[in-house]
Amino acid sequence: MANDDYEAGLKMLQELTTNAQQIQDRLLCEILVKNAGTEYLRRFLHGQTHKQLFKTNVPIVAYEHLKPYIDRIANGEASSDILLAEPVAGFSLSTGTSGGQPKLIPFTSETTNVTASSVTLYRSVMKKHLGDIDEAGKRMELMFAKPDVETPSGLKASAVSSRIFKSIQATLPKLYTSPFETIFCRDTKQSMYCQLLFGLIQRDEVIMIGSIFASTVLRGFKVLENNWQELCSNIRTGQISDQITDSGCRTAASLILKPNPELADLIGNICSCKSWDGIIRKLWPKTKYIGTICTGAMMQYTAELEFYCGGLPLVSSFYGCSEGAIGINLEPLCKPSDVSYTFLPDAVYYEFVPIKEECITESPKQVEFSGVSQNESLETKSNDEDTEPVDLVNVKPGRCYELLVTNSKGLYRYRVGDVLMVTGFHNNTPQFRFVGRQNIALGVDVERTSEADLLKAVMEAKTLLDPLGFILTEYTSYGDTSSTPGHYVIFWELKAKEGNNVKELDPKVMEECCSRIEDSLHFTYRMYRKENIIAALEIRVVKQGTFEALMSYFVSRGASLSQYKTPVCIKPKEALKILDSRVITKFFSPRTPI
Ligand code: AMP
């Protein structure tokens, strides 16, 4: 990054965060003036553009409400101003919860510029804390593009990440280890294998390892663990495996892969070590950090990542969604549990719906920088007086909010579905900790358990596994109501640190894990359990590779691998079958919760 861009980026950040209110008001005014005549807004605003009218008349909506309008655009209805005055240039495929079909979010040519300017800001912050990475070497970023889908209108639908990968195509050879052909390979297994191969070949140049989400980095390490001998053999002979049939990948390999027995021996020696503790530093000795999102549901993967990275910092640099909200982590070197994102006020117009289940921490200090894994409690407190959505600058530290966005993509007061907690302010702009998804609720009676509640409870229980030599690599949940009373089922995929067998898991410890989860869940759950309205919680341990199969299922249904997040609660029956058919052993909580 050029020095001028860097200075300009930091200056812009100061200006944006200082003038947040004015920028937000101006942005809303521009969106309304431009789109007041659209079919959708006319229904509520009758051509007017006042902020107050917007707040009283335009309803707060979820995707399902806008879907009929979006579908009409996607189906090519001639009328051009259904949701937006500007022509729609295409659609983003949002994975959101990864729970179902991807959503279509329209975009226009204008929205691309906002994304570009936020990338400059984020890079300036990174340069401030980590130096000029681009000059120091290459990034081994695991990237997976999803092919565009054509809608009946002829407009393309693509994952935001895929468009970003396309936009950096020219810089790939200089800044990244993965060639374009591997990122755009349609077979994600071949793509992953080849990206690892290219990363290993260029190991001396690698200064950063990452992917958008932490789960993908770990997936990369699983593939490496299963394939390192073959990768070494490819490096030794200079010939890529026969299992790589994609012509793009083979051509890319033919340009760079030369017989290198020395490198193959070196890598082979490192990988054949009994423990992979700190392996990243050994394989890629110049790595400065792991760049990947480790917050929210990704928090569960930090322990395993830390195991591999041997003290390298885990950097969660941004929060973003296809709907356009963007937040930057201004302290990229802080611990994953302390990460907060400063929202950029020029990206979209934000509103925040206070959540009745208010987040209260035990001491105000912990509100500022606390992670779910820390000594923090999320309790339920009804607070009816302030349920109205508030503007960006009016949120209160320590409180949780559901995010609404209004943007120039045709979304008006749209529920993104994310829950955020205010941790502080940078100038006049709030900083948020990502708490979880609002609509992922596990429940078997009238009680509801949020993603954050469940994550916190699972994090508590998994500490019991450490002395047994097992790591929890993935989990998900399911509310089983097939018998009465219903009960919570938690699927766990475990990895033995050093050759232990999952079948030999100590039942006493595993039962205690079930109870520990129950002890850590919210008051209503525990009360219902004591009154036998909910039956004992069950942990089902599944075979290695089960969550890989689950991911393949969701990717086959349209999710982008780069944006994929394991669903915290399973709804589709087919997905449940994938899990149930791979269960090795089951444990139940032997006692009622404390
Ligand atoms: P998508 O719908 O595929 O664009 O994915 C966006 C969603 O990913 C957001 O709405 C969040 O739920 C999640 N997400 C994005 N950034 C972060 C982050 N930094 N921490 C936790 N979750 C995130």
Automatic annotation (TrEMBL):
Record's keyword annotation contains Glycoprotein: no
Every GH3 C-terminal domain range: 453-573
Keywords of this entry: Ligase
InterPro entries: GH3, GH3_C, GH3_M
GH3 middle domain location: 341-437
Source species, domain of life: Eukaryota
Family, as annotated: Belongs to the IAA-amido conjugating enzyme family.
Name by which UniProt lists this protein: Indole-3-acetic acid-amido synthetase GH3.17-like
